[in-house]
Amino acid sequence: xxxxxxxxxxxxxxxxxxxxxxxxxxxxxxxxxxxxxxxxxxxxxxxxxxxxxxxxxxxxxxxxxxxxxxxxxxxxxxxxxxxxxxxxxxxxxxxxxxxxxxxxxxxxxxxxxxxxxxxxxxxxxxxxxxxxxxxxxxxxxxxxxxxxxxxxxxxxxxxxxxxxxxxxxxxxxxxx
Length: 176
Fold this sequence. Notes:
Blueprint: E1 3-7, E2 13-20, E3 24-30, E4 33-39, E5 47-55, E6 59-60, H1 64-71, E7 83-94, E8 97-106, E9 109-124, E10 130-141, E11 160-174
């Protein structure tokens, strides 16, 4: 029987990083997200499935004007595509490191995505809950998902890079 896990949003962060003007990096987060996982045993080496969703309207870059632009049809088009989704298809693990393969869907476009995973360990918290911690990272091309807005400076520099780096610190809680 599969063991079910659920993300602890109060102890997890989902971030993306994009080069701006090719000289700095802007970091964004999603304030509303959910994830579930299934394993065959308490050991995440037997990970069977991960499903992650984020509400695109909850994007937060600490700049209201930029956040509204990201919610618009130029980027996430949050009104028509309220969620982005990742569903795993395979997990290869060696010790505390692994590769999580799956499909990412943004704006109705689904593409393969591979995430590097580092297992940080498992503990029982003071409330008796079993928790597992992970660091995840990866990258994708925003334009492949239909986020094609572009602008160029007077000097010919790109305003927003195509490559988006994904970074997540995730705490999963074993469900009883």
